[in-house]
Write a structure and sequence with these properties.
- This protein is α/β, with parallel strands linked by helices.
- The protein has a 5-stranded parallel sheet with strand order 2-1-3-4-5, sandwiched between helices.
- Helix 4 links the parallel strand 3 and strand 4.
- Helix 3 packs parallel to helix 4.
- The N and C termini lie close together (11 Å).
């Protein structure tokens, strides 16, 4: 199975920003965790991170053509207002899981709103980095 993991803005700053919310593990730790999962399952799991909305949209559209079977996406702050990313996700007929490291339902009011979740098959939040592994497992099961 070919799975694409997309991380949006500031996720490359894991372990640096707001450690009480996002933990002390850095972005490379997350990449290594995903790589280990790929080796365990035998899946082709690719990762992509960008702080730029257009680059994320371009990668979602590219996934449509490159044989991607599932997308895990943490849109970061774009979750709450990027109708462009929402439309890109809606335009590809690929199973999708939205992931958030923190429990977005117990944070600021604006974080409780996701414009991207309605076009995903599932939303996982508050599970820390393990949420990515849960999302991969979900995609493998459907």
């Amino acid at each position: 199975m070919k799975i694409l993991v997309i991380n949006g803005p500031n996720l490359n700053f894991l372990g640096i920003r707001e450690k009480k919310i996002y933990g002390t593990q850095d972005y490379q730790y997350l990449l290594d965790l995903i790589d280990k999962k790929a080796k365990e399952t035998g899946d082709d799991i690719q990762t992509f991170q960008s702080n730029h909305e257009g680059a994320i949209i371009d990668r979602i559209q590219e996934a449509y053509f490159d044989g991607t079977n599932g997308i895990v996406i943490n849109p970061g702050a774009y979750t709450h207002y990027s109708y462009a990313i929402r439309d890109a996700l809606a335009s590809v007929d690929i199973p999708k899981v939205e992931v958030h490291i923190s429990d977005i339902t117990s944070r600021e009011e604006f974080r409780k709103i996701s414009v991207t979740a309605p076009v995903c098959n599932k939303q996982i939040y508050g599970q820390g980095l393990d949420g990515y592994l849960q999302a991969i497992d979900f995609l493998r099961e459907i």
